[in-house]
Structures are given as C-alpha cells and as structure tokens.
Write a structure and sequence with these properties.
alpha+beta, five-stranded mixed β-sheet, 7 helices, 23% helix
Length: 251
Amino acid sequence: MKKIIYLLLAMAFLAGCSDDDKLPEVKPEKTGTVTDSEGNEYTWVRYNGLDWLASNFRAGDPYYDWEMYNEEYDANFYVALSDYAQAVKDYDMYGNLYTYEEAVKSAEMLEGEGWRLPTDEDWLKLEQALGMSQKTADKRGWRGAPAGELLQQGTDGSGINLMLGGIVSLRKSSTYMELTLATMRESGYYWTATKVDSPFTLEGDVVWYRRIFYNTSEVEREQTSVTAIRGGYDIFFPKFMSVRYVRDAVD
C-alpha cells in the first residue's frame, strides 16, 4: 500500500511540474553577423523590427586600463582595481565596460550604418517581444518575469545572451583613485541612450538602464547619473556598464 501511495504522489508531482514550469520558446526572426573596426565579430538577432548584438561589445580601451584614467582626470594618483587579475581573465567572455559617453560614441566602431546605443523604447520593444505586456514594461524597478531568463538564453533559446558582466565605479579621493568591480557573475548592467528628468538630487544627467540578475526571472528598469557626484572629499565618477548595440532592421 505504501508503494502505491508513493507512486501516486510521484506521478502527481511530475504532472504538476510539466508544461506549466517551462519557459516559453522564443526564437529570433532572423540572425546575422557584424564586425567592428578592431576585427571582433558579433552575431546579431532580430526581434520586433530591431537587430540586437548577441554578445557584449568589446572594442576600445579596456576599462581596467588605469593609465587612461590618470591621464583623463589629471590625477597622477594610484589607481586600484578590485580583483584586477580576474577582470583581465574574464574580459574575453564578458566584453568591455563603458561610461555612458563611451557607450554612445563607440557605436561608430561597428561596420555598416545605423548601429546605435538602444533607447529605453528599444529595450521596451525587445521586452514586449519576449512576452512582457506594455503595462508591465512601462513600470520602474524589477518587473516582467520570465523575460529576465529569456534575455539570458543563448542559441538554444532566444539567442540574446545577456551576460552577468558586473559593474564598475570610479572614485577619486584626495590621495588616490579606485576602480571597483562589483557583482561579476551575479548581475549584468546595460546602458540605454535615453536621458530623463530626474526626481533625485544628483548633479548632471540621468539615464535609464537595464539590469539582469542570476537568480531572478525579472528585468530591472532603473535610472542612474552619468556625471560625477561629489560626496564629502570624494568624487564618484560615472559607472561603467555593458553595451549591446541595436539598429533598425534592414533588408
């Protein structure tokens, strides 16, 4: 009798975990490749009339090139990067991280015309192509499961392959500058090109960004400053995030 009961319970469990727990199958409308001026090749995938890079952009000076920041900010101070060796090692997999200004300008490095940093509206169109309703997509904060998982799928799924490349901040004090790499393999932060009027008391421009996280099916839609912020004796410079470029579908 116990064996029969266990068998029935197992069957009920399997039945309850069948199709309801599966992610929807989403495939791109079309795929292709594009190359940047340094010879790096990227696959792109098409959704809702837009072609998206399917890997993080990587051209330009690596974000961990500390001499570049000493020169740019006339610091002549020591620059430390948390976990420098790991950052160099992971560069090939996760690509480069960029300030907002770098992210906008570096689109010029892709061959062909029309490539740009995606706007907030471009991201909304992508999220809706993955099943998110417009009402949900327009919300701020974490929303829209299971789009967060679909955005991270490789060629066996959506093909978009957003990655958990972390985020970097640059801080300057009276004696040193420091690059801090955080949440590598936990979060992926992605710029949008869309500036907004901010309700916060921050200096300078504010833009929308997207964030994915390793243990959530949702996608974060939030805002951040793109100019330096003063805090006591320290100056916190813009964040460095991952970049995916987009273009209006051609052909």
